[in-house]
Amino acid sequence: MRFIKIIASLCLLITVISCQEKVDYSNVITDGTYLSNAQNRITEVIIHDIFSPPVAARIYSYSSLAAYEVAAAADPNYVSLLGQLNGSEKTTFNPSEKVYLPLASLAAYYYVGTGLIFSEDMMNEHRDAAYAELKEKGIPEDVFEASIAFGKEVGDAIKAYSSKDNYHQSRSFPKYTVTGEFGTWEPTPPAYMEAIEPHWNKIRTFVLDSAAQFKPLAPPPFSIEPGSEFYNAAKQVYDAAVNAGTEQKEIALFWDCNPYKMNVKGHVMFAEKKITPGGHWMSIASIASKAAGKDWKGTAETFALTGIALNEAFISCWDEKYRSNLIRPETYINQYIDEEWVPLLQTPPFPEHTSGHSVASSAAGYTLGQLFGDEFHLVDSSEVAYGLPVREYNSFSQAYKEAAISRFYGGIHYMPAIDYGVSQGLSIGEFIWKNISTKPERLAEAK
Amino acid sequence: MRIKSLGLLVLACAFFSCEKETEQATKLFELLPSEQTGINFENNLTSTPEFNILEYLYFYNGGGVAAGDINNDGLIDLYFTGNQVSNKLYLNKGDFKFEDITDKAGVTGENGWSTGVTMADVNGDGLLDIYVSQVGDYKSIKGKNRLYINQGDETFLDLASEYGLDFVGFSTQAVFFDYDRDGDLDMYLLNHSVKSPEVFSKASTRQTPDEKGDKLFKNLAAEGENRFEDVTVESGIYSSILGFGLGVGVADFNSDEWPDIYVSNDFTENDYLYINQQNGTFLESLEDKIANTSRYSMGNDLADLNGDGMPEIFTTDMLPENPEIWMKSVGEDKSEVYQIKKQFGYNDQYVRNHLQVNLGNGDFSELALFAGVSASDWSWSPLIFDMDNDGLSDIHVTNGIVKRPNDLDFIQYSQEVDPNSSMEQLRKTQIDMLPTVKLSNYAFQNTGELKFTNKASAWGLDQPSYSNGSTYADLDNDGDLDLILNNLNQPAFVYKNHSEKSGNNFHSVTLENQAFNQFGIGSKVTVFSGDQLFSQYVGNSRGFQSAVSPELVFGLGNSEKIDSVWVEWPEGEKEVFLDLKTNSKVTLEKGRGKAFVTSSTQNSKEEKFPSIDWMHEEKTEVDEVKREYLIPRSFSVLGPALAVADVNSDGLEDVYLGGAKDQPGVLYLQKSSGEFEAVSNPIFQQLAKAEDVVAEFADFNQDGLMDLIVGSGGNEYDPGNLFLFDRIYFGKGNGQFQFIPNALPPIGENTSTIAIHDVDGDGGLDLFLGASVVAGDYGASPKSSLLINLGNGQFRDETSDWMGTEGNLGMINSAVWADLDGDSIEELILTGDWQPIRVFKLTSDNRLKETSIPGLERSAGWIQSLKIADINGDGRPDILTGNLGENSKLKASYENPLWLYHADFDGNGQADPLIFHYMENKLVPFATRDDLIKQIPGIKKLHGSYADYSRISKPEELFPSPALNAANKYPVFELRSGVYFQQENGSFVFEPFPSSVQWSPVMDMYWDDNQKTLHLAGNFSGFRVDLGKTNSLPFQSWNYQGGSWKKINLNSDIPNQSEIRRIRPISVSGGNYLLAAPNSSVPYWVKIP
C-alpha cells in the first residue's frame, strides 16, 4: 500500500517537475507547522518506545538543537549554540545556494530525532509523508536533495556532539540497589519497577557547570513521629488527598504526564502511556510559537531553548533524587498512616525529592516567559489526544506553578519537593538564559 | 468401467475405514461424542459490561466436575458446574450412556456462579451428597455455597444453611476429610480473595483472619448433631485476605496416619502445607519442608508417583512450553521485584508447575524441571493417575484461558488512547484486544525414574480446548480410568480409556468403612506385588474445582499376582487382605481383613555428632544482577572454605573454616575428647574483609609443619583488588599461624580452586590457583595462575613460562593434579563453567601442554567439582564430575548444546553474556526481551515487539551476523554429573550418575576408596530468578559394586535443602566422619564406615 503511494507520488512529482520547471517554492515552509508536526510524531514514538522523562528530555533537546542550528546558519539574526554549550565546538556551516534551509532544518530534526529513538519505522513513515507533501508543493528534486544533505550534515555534527554526553556508556552503569535503610525510597505498587536512571547526573549538561550546581534544599529530616516535620508533610499529602476537590483532581490528572502507568486487574495488566512532563512542555512551546506567529526559525529557537532547559532540569533534579533517596508518600503513608491508601496518580519509579515536574516545568516555563513574555494567553491543548480537556492560562508562570502543585494533589509528592523544586527549576532557567543566547545582541551581554 | 470405479470406491472405503479403525485402536483415549453419551454440558460464558475479566479477576476460571455413584447402582455418575449456565447431574446408565436428571434431582445451582464441586457422604448415611461452591453476592453475581443432601431417590435437598455450610463469598472448592479422626467428615473450604493482589502486603498479614478467608468446619455428626461448627481460628488455619486459593488437597505427607492439607495460592501468597498436629490443630510448615513453589499456583494433586508409597505434590502454573509463546509471555519476576517479595516475607516462587517429591519423611525435593513437567501453559487441573495402567502413575493437566492476559505485547503496547471512547467502550476494547490461544491439554506419561513425556497427541487427548476442571472415574467398570473435562465455550470432554486393550493388569478397590465415613475417606490402600507397591489415598477433591469418586483403580502393568492389599483405615486401624486377584474389582470391608500393627520405622537410635561452634555468615550486599543484568548465577555465595589436617602433630585432625566477607576464618584444634577448640589467630581477624572460598593445608616452607593457604573470591571487587589476594599462613605447630604478605604474588582474582603439586620436582610444593569469574564480566576469562615455590614458601608467578599463556584459561571452578595415564607424572586437570575437562601434560622441556584426550571432547558443562579416582578398580584413574544436573531450565546435549556468546555487542564498554538454548529445535536466547533490553537497549530497535522477538529461531536472528561472528562462543554439551571411565586405550567414556544425583548441582564429592563409596553434596540458590534456586539434592552416598551404583543411607544431620559447598573426611575420637561446610549455616556431619 505504502509502495503504491510512493509510486503515485513519484509519478506526480515527475509530472510536476516536467510541467512546471520554475516554481517559486520559497514559501512552501514559512512557519513552524512542519517542525511541530515532526515533534508531535517524536512524542508519539517516545510514548510507544517507553522512554522515561529524563531520556525523553534528552531526545527533544538534541533533535531541536539540530533544527535550530540550520536556522542559525540561515539567518545572521540567530547565533549558533555550538561553541556555547558544554563540550561543543564552534562550527560554521556553509549551505550551498541550492539548499532550501527550512527543509534542511526539518530534515536535520528528523535525522537526529530518528537516531535517538527505537521505532525508526514510525519516524520514517511520518518523514516520508511530509517530504512527499513538500515535493508536491514544488520543491525541485535537486534542491530537495541538497537540502536533505545539508540537514544531514548539521545533524551529523549534532549526533557527534550528543554521542559524547555519556548516555551510551550510562546504559551499562549498575542498576539502582534499594538500600532498605529507614526512610529511603522503595519500589511502589503495582509494578514495583526499579528506580530509573540512577546515574543521570553523569550525563553531560548543556549549560550548568555540573549536575549539582543548583542543589535544592534537602527534605525535612525523616521521622515517623507524629507531629514531626516529616510526618506532617506526609499527613498533609494524605489529608489533601482525602479532602481533594474536583478542581484539584482535574489539575492532578491534567499534569499526570506519566509515560508508563501500569494497570493491574488480577492477572490482567496493561500499560497506559502518556506524554512525559518534557513532552507536555515541548507541546506548550509549539502551541506558543504558533500563537505568537513565530516563523520556522523562531519555532526552532523556541524548541531548542525549551529542550535545553528541560534537559538541564532533569539532570539537576535526578542528581538530587539519588542524593536524598527519599521515600515516596505512598510508601510512607501505607506504613505509618493508612495501609489502604492509594494516591490519585500512580507513583512513578524513582525517589521523591525534588519533584521532577516542578523543576522541569518551572525551568521550561521561565524560558518560554523570556522568549514570549511571561504574560501570555496559553490555551494548552497538549493533553487532548490523551482524553483530557484543554486548560487555559494567563501566563507561563501560572502554568508551571499549577504543574508543580499538581504533584501534591496527585499524592505523589510532599510540599517541600514542590517548593524547592520550583526554586531549583527557576534557578536553572535563569542561569541558562544568562549564559547562552540565540541572539547576537544578548550574546555579548551574556558573556 | 462402472464396476471398476465402484470397486475403487469400495476399496477406498475399506481403506478409509480400516485406517480409521487402526487409528482409533492405537490411541489410548477415545473422545466420545455427546450424542452417544448424552452429556451435552457446555460451560458457555458471555462477557458483559457488568461482569467480565476486568470486573472479576477469575472470570475465566471455568467450572469443575465431580464423579461419584449417587444411587449406589455400581455406576459412577457425573456432576458438572457452570458459571452462567445451570449445573448438570448425569446419571450413568451403563455403556457410556448418561441421563440428565438435574432438574428432577434439584441440583441446578439456582443460577449461581458455581465454581468447585465435590461429592461426599456428609451426613454419614451411605449416600454421596454434593457440595457446590459458588461466588456469592459480588457486583451483579448472586450465589452461596450449596450442600445438596442425597435423599436416596435420586433427588437432593439443599440443606447448606441447616448444616451451617451456606457460606457466601468467593469459594473455589471444598474438601471433606476427617481431620480429627472422630469418624465423620469435616470440611475445609477454600476461598479466594479479590483484593488487589498486585499491592503487596507483608506476609505476616496472613495471620489476620478475614471473614472471607479459608475456613475449617468440624462435622458434629459424631457428636450427634447434623451440623458443622466453624473451627477456623482455633485450628491454626490461615484465613486472611492474602489467600487466593485455587487448589486444595488432602493426604498424609509424613506417614503419621493423620490427614494433612496442601493449599495452592495464586499471586504473591505462599502455598500452605498444613501438617496435622493430631490434636485438632494444624501447623503450616511449607517453608520448612519445601524450597520453592509455583507462583501463580492453580490446582494441585497429591499422590505417589515414584512407587515409594508417599504422596508427591504437583501444582500447576502458567509457563508455556512452546518457545514462541514463552518468549512473548510474562515470565519470572524481574530480580528487583523478586527481592521485594522476599523482603515482604514470601517464600521463593517461580512461574512453572512444581513437582514436590516426597523424600519419605515429609520433606520434599522440587523436581518439575528434572521430570519434564514444568511447562503446560496456562494450567488448571492436574490429576495424578495411571492413565495406561502400566503401573506408573501419570499426570494429566488441563489448560487454556479464553483471554490471555500474560501476553507482553498486550501489556506494553496494546493501549492506543482514543480520547473519544467512553470508559465502557475502552474496557470492552481492552478485553477484545486480549489475545486468544487455544491449546491441547497435557498428558505426562511417567516413564520411570520420575521422568515424564507429554503423550497428549499419541493418546488421543490433544483436542484444542479451554479446559478447567477434570476428574477420572472408571465409568464403564472395565478396570481403567476414563477422563472427564469441563470446558469453557465447548462441550465437556468424556474420554473412554482403552487400557483394557493393552494387556496391562489392574485392581479396583472400594472400601466399606463404618460409622459416618462409610466410603473410607482418608484411608490409604497399598497393593503389593513382588517388589512393587502401588499406593493410593481415598479422597474426594483433586485437581481444580473437581473431585473423584472413592473407588480406587490401580494399574498393575504386567504384574500378574497381588501378594496382599493393605488398608490403613482413617481412624487408625490397619488390615491386610490376602488372596486378591488381578483384573478384579473388590470391596474391602473394615473388619474382614487381618489386623496388623506396623513397627515404627523411625530409627530410635539418635546419632550423636561432633560439633563445631561456628556459623557461616554470608553477606547479601553484593547483587551481581545490578551490575550485569544477564549473569546467570552468583559467584558471591561460594564460601565457606574448609580444610582439614593435623596442624599440631597430636595425631588429631584439626579444621580451618574460612568465613564470608567481614567474617574471620577460624582454626579449630581437635582435643582428645573429640571437642573442637578455636585457637586465637589475630591475623585472621585482621584479614576478615576477604571472602574465603577455598583453603588447603600443606607444608609449603618445608619445616615439617602444616601451613595454610586460603583463596578469596566473592565477585565484588575488580581484579587486582587487595581483598582478593590469596594468602599463605605459615604454621607454628600449635594452631597459630604467621602471615607473610608477599609470600604469594599479588594477583587478586576470584579464586575458586587450589591444586598443590611439586611440578618442577624441586621438593617445594607448587600451586595452581584457578579463578572463576571477572567481576562485572561474566563469560570473560579471569587469570588463573601457576605459582612456583622458591623452596621457602615464597612463590613466583610462572604461568606464562609453563603454560604459554597469561593464565586466561576460562572460567575455572576446579583443578586437580593427578597421574591419569600411569606414566608417574602428574597432569594438571581442570574445568569450570563453559569448560570441557582439560588436561595439561608436563612435557620434557618443563611446559604444561594442553592435550586432547578422546572421550573428553563433549565434556563441556558447568562443572563445579572434579575428582580423580579409580572407581571400577581396573587400575586406571577415572574422572568424576559434579555438574549442574538436570533439574534446570537449561538443558544440553551434544546435538542440542547450550551456547554462551560473549562480546560487547553494543560497544558500550560492557561485554554482554548471551546464553542461547534449544527449545523445540530452535536455538533461542534464554534472556527475555526485557532483560536483554536492560543490558543492550538497541535490541528494542532490532526487535520492536515481543512477537517479533519470539520468532527468533537462531542467534543470527537476534543480531546481525558481523556482531555475532566477533563474539567468543562457548558450547556446553553435558550438564549431568557422572564418571568419565578411563578405557584401556586411555580414552574416556561417560556414564552419568544415577538420576537422583541430577536433582541439583553437585558442589563437592568425596570418594572413599576403602569403602568404594562416593559421597556427594550440592544445592545452589544463587541462580538468577528466571533459572530459580535448585535446592533439591539431599546429601547422598553411593556404593560402587558390580559395575553399578547402589544408594546407601548413612546417619547425618545435614538438612535436605542445605547448600553444602565442601565436604572433607575427618576422624573424630576414632570415629570416621564427613565434615560438610554449608553456605550460611553451621557445619554438618555424616557418620561414615
What spatial order of strands do you see in the largest sheet of chain B? 33-32-37-38-40
Structure annotation, total helices of chain A: 16
| Assembly type | heterodimer
Strand content of chain B: 25-35%
Task: Kindly state the number of beta strands of chain A.
Answer: 4
Summarize the structure.
Chain B: InterPro entries: Crtac1, FG-GAP, Integrin_alpha_N, UnbV_ASPIC. Chain A is mainly alpha-helical.
Report what the structure shows.
The complex is a heterodimer of chains A (447) and B (1089). Chain A is built from 16 helices and four strands. Chain A is mainly α and 447 residues long. In chain A, strands 1-2 form a two-stranded antiparallel ribbon. In chain A, strands 3-4 form a two-stranded antiparallel ribbon. In chain A, a hairpin with a 2-residue loop joins β1 (261-265) and β2. In chain A, α3 (53-74) packs across α6 (141-162). Chain A starts with a helix and ends with a helix. Chain B is mostly beta strands. Chain B has a five-stranded antiparallel β-sheet with strand order 33-32-37-38-40, with no helix packed on it. In chain B, β41 and β42 form a beta hairpin. The radius of gyration of chain B is 32 Å and the shape is globular. The relative contact order of chain B is 0.08. Classes of the chains: A mainly alpha (447), B mainly beta (1089). At the A-B interface, β2 of A face α8, α10 and α12 of B. Chain A: InterPro entries: PAP2/HPO_sf, V-haloperoxidase. Chain A: This is Vanadium-dependent haloperoxidase. Chain A: It comes from Algoriphagus pacificus. Chain B: This is VCBS repeat-containing protein.
